[in-house]
Amino acid sequence: MAQQTSAWRRYMRAFISGFFVAVPVTVTLLDKLAYVARVEGASMQPFLNPDVGAQCDVVLLNRWSVRNYHVQRGDIVSVVSPRNPKQKIIKRVIGLEGDFIRTLGYKNQYVRVPDGHFWIEGDHHGHSLDSNSFGPVSVGLLHGRASHIIWPPNRWQRIKPSLLPNRELLYTEEDDE
User: Which of 58, 89, 111, 160 is the most buried (most CB within 10 A)?
Assistant: First the structure.
């Protein structure tokens, strides 16, 4: 009986010490490297959640790749909502700082994206709360870049940056260089 108690204590001690090592390591990895997020709603259809009423897509959000706030046009990113800081939204980057873009219902028809900001839109225009509602988004609100669709299994794929055909830039300051 004494051996059982001793074995049980060793087991619990090993479990607890492993737990106190694993939890901080896991939290650090999720905070700095990547995590998964469920994409809800129709704002990114047809690319994400293409089947209305079916399972929501789950994406891998790469936090490490945006640690220096570097994104490119066509990236799908997660940002803290400018309207509700408790909510994160997933949208496509349409314009970077210095770009001139044609808006889809913003207060001005044409906008120059200010320094330190980018312009994001959902792929399903009419069903998206995006920069056309709240304007350019500060890069400080950037949370992660969607790199892969990981659920459902029949949609597994790497997400490559791409712009919708009707969302090309009017002008970018890179054209001057």
Answer: 89
Question: Torsions phi, psi of 102, nearest 5?
Answer: -95, 125
| Lookup: tokens for 152 | 């459902």
d(CA 66, CA 85): 19
Tell me which of 6, 65, 91, 107 is the catalytic residue.
91
Q: Which residue has the tokens 């459902």?
A: 152
| Sole residue written with tokens 């293409």 | 50
* Residue type at 91 in one-letter notation: K
CB 118 within 8 A of CB 97: yes
Alpha-carbon distance of 151 to 59, in angstroms, equals 7
The tens digit of pLDDT for each residue in 122-143 reads 998 888 899 999 999 999 999 9
Is 88 considered catalytic here? no
pLDDT tens column, 4-44? 667 778 877 877 877 777 777 777 766 778 888 889 888 99
> What are the structure tokens assigned to 176, written together?
């001057």
CB 65 within 8 A of CB 147: yes
> pLDDT grade, residue 173 (50/70/90)?
low
How much is the mean pLDDT over the chain? 86
The encoded tokens of residue 108 equal 């001005």
- Number of Cβ within 10 Å of residue 32's Cβ equals 11
